[in-house]
Amino acid sequence: MPETQTTPSLTPHDPSPAPAAAPSPAAAGAALAAPPPGPAAVRHVFDFAEGHREQAALLGGKGANLAEMTRLGLPVPPGFTITTAACREYLRTGAEPATLGGEVSAHLAALEERMGRRLGRGAAPLLVSVRSGAAVSMPGMMETVLNVGLTDSSVHSLAAWAGDERFAWDSYRRLIQMFGATVLGVDSGLFEERLSRARRAAHAPTDAALPAAALRDLAGEFQELVRAEGRRAFPQEPREQLDLAVRAVFDSWQGERARLYRRQERIPDDLGTAVTVCAMVFGNLGPDSGTGVAFTRDPATGQRGIYGDYLQNAQGEDVVAGVRNTVPLSELARLDPASHAELRRITAVLENHYRDLCDVEFTIERGRLWMLQTRVGKRTAAAAFRIACQLLDEGLIDEREALRRVTGGQLARLLFPRFDEEAAPAPLARGIGASPGAAVGAAVFDSATAAQWAEAGRAVILVRRETSPDDLGGMLAARGILTSRGGKTSHAAVVARGMGTPCVCGAEALEVDAANRRLTTAGGGVVREGEVISVDGGTGRVYRGEVPVVPSEVMEYFERAGQAAGAGSAGRAAASRAPQAAAPGAGAGAGAGAGAGELVAAVHRLMGIADRVRRLDVRANADTAQDAARARRFGARGIGLARTEHMFLGERRPLVERLILAETEAERREVLRELLPLQRADFTGLFEAMDGLPVTVRLLDPPLHEFLPDLTDLSVRVALRGAREAGHAGSAGEGAGAGDAGGAGDAAGRADARLLAAVRRLHEQNPMLGLRGVRLGLVVPGLFAMQVRAVAEAAADRALAGGTPLPEIMIPLVGTVRELELVRAEAEETVAGVARARGLALRIPIGTMIELPRAALTAGRVATAADFFSFGTNDLTQTVWGFSRDDVEAGFFATYLEKGVFQVSPFETIDVEGVGALVETAARAGRAARGDLKLGVCGEHGGDPDSVRFFHRVGLDYVSCSPFRVPVARLEAGRAAAGA
Amino acid sequence: MPETQTTPSLTPHDPSPAPAAAPSPAAAGAALAAPPPGPAAVRHVFDFAEGHREQAALLGGKGANLAEMTRLGLPVPPGFTITTAACREYLRTGAEPATLGGEVSAHLAALEERMGRRLGRGAAPLLVSVRSGAAVSMPGMMETVLNVGLTDSSVHSLAAWAGDERFAWDSYRRLIQMFGATVLGVDSGLFEERLSRARRAAHAPTDAALPAAALRDLAGEFQELVRAEGRRAFPQEPREQLDLAVRAVFDSWQGERARLYRRQERIPDDLGTAVTVCAMVFGNLGPDSGTGVAFTRDPATGQRGIYGDYLQNAQGEDVVAGVRNTVPLSELARLDPASHAELRRITAVLENHYRDLCDVEFTIERGRLWMLQTRVGKRTAAAAFRIACQLLDEGLIDEREALRRVTGGQLARLLFPRFDEEAAPAPLARGIGASPGAAVGAAVFDSATAAQWAEAGRAVILVRRETSPDDLGGMLAARGILTSRGGKTSHAAVVARGMGTPCVCGAEALEVDAANRRLTTAGGGVVREGEVISVDGGTGRVYRGEVPVVPSEVMEYFERAGQAAGAGSAGRAAASRAPQAAAPGAGAGAGAGAGAGELVAAVHRLMGIADRVRRLDVRANADTAQDAARARRFGARGIGLARTEHMFLGERRPLVERLILAETEAERREVLRELLPLQRADFTGLFEAMDGLPVTVRLLDPPLHEFLPDLTDLSVRVALRGAREAGHAGSAGEGAGAGDAGGAGDAAGRADARLLAAVRRLHEQNPMLGLRGVRLGLVVPGLFAMQVRAVAEAAADRALAGGTPLPEIMIPLVGTVRELELVRAEAEETVAGVARARGLALRIPIGTMIELPRAALTAGRVATAADFFSFGTNDLTQTVWGFSRDDVEAGFFATYLEKGVFQVSPFETIDVEGVGALVETAARAGRAARGDLKLGVCGEHGGDPDSVRFFHRVGLDYVSCSPFRVPVARLEAGRAAAGA
């Protein structure tokens, strides 16, 4: 049992598949059971004894882990696996590889020989299961056919062999049912109809109560059904059953469910599935038989042991169907102490081998334990943190591995407030948790009502069958969104995530009746407009009434952690990479139980490791002193993006309006003079909050008209005023257009008319591609100089007051080095002037956003005038793809995700192939031109786990993200450094 | 005299400087007059005997050509040149290179030794001229100082040496005047004031009539003036005069005039100027002296000979000042037959050596001829074509060289109609010809009036001091634009060129008085609003009244040429590369004189050569059969871009509106069914006009709302209707906004309200970055399929009717290969369906625009699903730079050109460093992935001369441009292949 491998190829926190390895016969440990194919041919079938767990890409997770268990000497029924490569060839060409049939024959023959039984023939006919198994777990998404090999003839042999007529006919009708539905496409409802008719006729409360004769009759009825509805008769040739079942599993990769699931889980569409063919063992051969699932440790607490459920005298599908109640595994110790002990032994072996929580499926056939599957087990976000620390304590994994066992996505989920599960009623329904967070409000069924109620101050949940762009207003107004249709990539889901609004979608048990303003639950309950509901966008649960919300203890920890650290180290020394977290012992405190305390301790410990190992620094995007202070508490080591445009809003709007409307140079200079002290105060606040840490101030970016009223609204207002006045004199002319209606007589009218003229003058067809950023700085004299002066004066004043301000000035939207040179020259002069006036030395690095393809393409030249680059990946994504986030995310993204153009919105996770390539090129060229160039990123990707790992890989110095994402970015930066 | 060189480094048609060569002492032909500097040092000074004409980048055009003439043994006064590299170092560091002073001393000593005279000392003091000379001719833009070396002392020696007191004092006062103004920055008006006072005192009608005593007094007065106004006294040390004069020439590179000129002529700002220091020879030493300029052949006709002007007993500046009338050079044959013969001999040497028209400046000093300058002479566009053919006939150049001697820009000028110069009155004024073409109309002085009058059907010329974005409406309405301020990069010029509207700007002699709606000429004439004026945007001339316009005979030739060719070859055979031009003999005809006939013959001949040598094919952008036919007449070998959106406008608008407003799938399908035959007819027309040539149909590109009314206009209309109706009931509410005012009761109101809802739904903040192109095709079911079907059916019907349609289908706005795969799959299925239905084989290549950075960055993958790429350089420029042409060209481009961020709008000439780099990368990756990938370009750059050469260089297969630019593109493609 070699234990050298430190990264299992398949863990639940690693959704990316292991690289596809070519099948390597040399790597197979056991002697080949089948004659090796010709030297040029690729093998498509591997015996369980030939593979190992690193081969999930080739053998699927199930096949690889069955092979691993076989290698470990655990009791796995013999079998073989058909590779994902065979599936891919089938999907590509529409036909199985030419050599596949021969290989299957050889492996089947070896299996028969080993079992001493033949497939569907002889006195003890061999039956096999045919199961799917992709490289990445897709539970329940693809097909399975059990009992393959049973025929009108072998069913009798099976009955004789098992000594159980009922068992044999039950197995047969199950095969025909599964085969008919899965392989031959017969509507499964038709089988269910006949089954329930048979139950009624036999007065059997459950299937288990059906006698052998009834089952035999059903097998006959099912065969007739298949003949009538399927494309052919149920095959009586065992090998034909096998071949068709394999093909059906291949086909199921492209099934609707599977494709949707892959899209949701960001699993590539071109992996294909492997197929395992395994000798059947039976848990339904009597009271000494049974089937169960087990976890090697408690998935909630991490406690070692075995945990799970057991069902006596049953097959696995019965557990899933829930027809009988399972018993806890502890019961098995009483029912079958030997098997229980053996299971404990095996799970211990697996734990030590996989060094992680595993789940297993097992069957006991007449007192003999068989392992049918194992995999690294799924767990909740909280459990992931706790288990990683426990494994660390147990010495099973090292610190870097512990980091790799948790994800930024899990941490993000832990930061949201959540419903108090204890106080929650039974959910009304469960849908897909599409945008996390807990929301409570009155149910409303149309967008206009949602907007009206929200404006009136009511919290509302917008409930729709599905949303369309027309619902945008209501979605913006709502606290939460609930739909009965659509998945994680539906319009509602995409838009809600973009807005950060909690959303449950695809709650299909609910019937939404917008016309009558109500929804009906599966149980017939009704929720009417105005009634309060609660939706949990994390778990997908929907509740009636108001469920109490409990704050996140992890969030509280981060808030506390920073305060402790902040108190201790205010100066430059605080900028060191040491973790900022206070020890959690102090106060897992109020409201958080022991579990919460352990969770917080685990988060604390893993954040500490992440901070120690990461190479990427983490800064925050913050525009106010409050945000900056919070970001610092969350562990930000500075501000990577302070957007000055936000400082132009609010009370200062009239001032900014005057700036824009200024008709003379003198007037404009006067306004800039008035703005200067206000801006200076803004920066002073930021420098105080981030004392000793860098603060990157981006000069004004958006176009000026963003500070003015909307053209259409204003045009209508002016036109209506004109019409009203004309109405006083006579009546509004029919042909009056927007342009003619501005002849207002009063002062307000004149002001509006003047404003409208300015808005028209500044109106741009595509403001995103207009006069903004550095262009504005070069076109409006004095604007950037005022901002630079405010930065320099604030810094000088802070320094004179004993602070350690570390400002950096960042120029937005640069396309060519010349723009940067021009602004830089002016800025340096301004800074020097302030330094002279204040009598101190001021060194303020000046850098640029890289947010236009041209800046990236000419980064080598741009670097000659820049002290740092900060990649603005939002704008870069917009220009590289040529679509604006505002305009398209709600519009065609759903279609694009549906059609597989995207796996995920490129605004959410960086588009490595396009935008990423440009970032990488520019980073390399920039560093080549200037070795000490500092490189950061300040788009929203800075807080996205996958993107953070990409930025680590291309060698950036820091990421900057919203304050709440800082912990996520710190963790992911650590994970990236740990090789995740 | 080596004659191996075939490309002179400096010709008027090659504005790009020769590559800067490091000074290579080994290349110097003559023995060094000065001791060589240390091995590590770079030489900054070269004797005239050391250089040659290929060294313009280092020695400036003047220095290189003086060296060349010296090498040819022509009589050039001795001297030396200080390099452009020295200037660049001075400009960069603010100080001359450390070794420059020593080198100048050495060269000066050698010069003194050779002349046997010392600078400003001794009985025969040596005087020198200090002149600028950049690599590219910038006539009159930089400074010159003559007579350097004269001092209070040496002026007496000069008088004695020349035997002419008056000459000596005149030379001295000229030096002080030039030195004071140029070197010491004294206002030159102050010298002129004193000069005219002296003339009045002496009753001298001209300077030439001033006696020696008056000039001596003036020299004294001038020195006092310099002391008072300059930064120092006039230096009495000859070497100090020289050093300061050199520095002043260096400085003049950065002078306002020089910078403006460079911007207009697209000369890089970082070349720097060389300085030539040359022994003075004097044309003002009596009647046996004089100065003149000559052309080696007639610049209008190309006739060999000498043509020029001569001024007896004068210095060069007198010719420029125009104080006395020059005589034709033929007079010199009478005045000084020996010198005239010598000049003929020398110009013949130069002609044969330069193999081009040269112009020269010469001086005769007491019967001895000296050559002071030569260069390849400027000429008009028409002369360029004629001279190139004459040189070809004379065997001086070969065909490829002849091609290099004309430019696409010259050809473009010849295609515009022009004013009949013979019928034109004396111009009112002359400004800068900023946007070519002839326009006649009523003068109007504000934008609103221009728009109103134009709407009423009047032709107007918008006259403004300068224009701003507020004038856009008037500029759009006007036939021509005239401003009294600003240059080729002013707002008016940039916008007018963008619109293709003739424009004269910077006509400074005109005073524009918008308030009183009139302009005043220099002569005091007045033009009032409504009076007709004529502006020539080519020559910059402005005329009163209506000047008759004559069509361009070259344009008429192309129209004729195509008809002749079109008649002869309608089939596929016509697609060969053979020139399309008919022999011009037939009809230089009506209205074109002998000169015009010769011009047309020259154009015909050179176009033939271009068509023979070019590797790039030329197609046209055409959306209608008429445009396609015209393009074909102009020599287009197919359509590279047929925009289908233009086919959605006009009468079909109601249909398209129905498509957009369709509420059901059935409704939409019905509209698409109605559109199908219309589109099919469109394509049939294109295929007929381009029979046998490829026609690339681009599927619908713009966002749907472009086919609907403007949001603001419609909102105002709906609001006003609402207010009016409310007014009938009561009165419009104060707070009524755009959203509330749509409750119209009548049918029109309901229709408007419905339309408004659709417009709002489709409204995008940045339509350029929204739902358009392939996105639309994937989101609106059936739209692209309808278009593809129309293409396929039209092609099938044409083929069945015996035509040879060669359609290509082009997908716009692709960002990732997946989009292309999806559309391609549907399109192939549609085409196959049509082929089956019509019973014939249809092969329609399917390709993509490369107009998004992402498509270019992933071109290798995109190519796997494309039969061709067509670079959409308009959109690519927009996204690479992140600005939209509509929004910014009028807005900040003027500022950017002014500040040197651009040399030229990147929408006019391709931005080689950014956009071009992406085109090159994508072309290479595309071809690597698919060797037979066809590569074209269909942005407007396809008709821009510089861009065409770039596309040739990166190996594209064709360019596609507007029909009128086709001849220009053909010529430039030929020139590129000929090495231009």
UniProtKB/TrEMBL annotation, chains A, B:
| Compositionally biased intervals (Low complexity) | 23-33
Q: Where is substrate bound in this sequence?
A: 643, 698, 851, 872-875
- Which Enzyme Commission number(s) are on file for it? 2.7.9.1
Catalytic site:
491, 938
Can you tell which superkingdom this protein's organism belongs to?
A: Bacteria
PANTHER family membership: PHOSPHOENOLPYRUVATE DIKINASE-RELATED, PYRUVATE, PHOSPHATE DIKINASE 1, CHLOROPLASTIC
Every copy of the Pyruvate phosphate dikinase AMP/ATP-binding domain together lies at 57-93, 102-325, 335-384
Query: So where does Mg(2+) get bound?
Result: 851, 875
Task: Pinpoint the PEP-utilising enzyme C-terminal domain residues.
Answer: 603-973
Q: Which PROSITE patterns match?
A: PEP_ENZYMES_PHOS_SITE
Q: Where is this region: Disordered?
A: 1-36
One Pfam assignment: PEP-utilizers
Q: Which GO terms describe its molecular function?
A: ATP binding; kinase activity; metal ion binding; pyruvate, phosphate dikinase activity
Which family does this protein fall into? Belongs to the PEP-utilizing enzyme family.
Compositional bias of type Polar residues: which residue ranges? 1-10
Enzyme class, spelled out: transferase
Under the heading InterPro entries, the entry gives: ATP_grasp_subdomain_1, PEP-util_enz_mobile_dom, PEP_util_AS, PEP_util_C, Phosphohistidine_dom_sf, PPDK_AMP/ATP-bd, Pyruvate_phosphate_dikinase, Pyrv/PenolPyrv_kinase-like_dom
Please list the residue ranges annotated as the PEP-utilising enzyme mobile domain. Answer: 460-540
This chain belongs to the protein called Pyruvate, phosphate dikinase
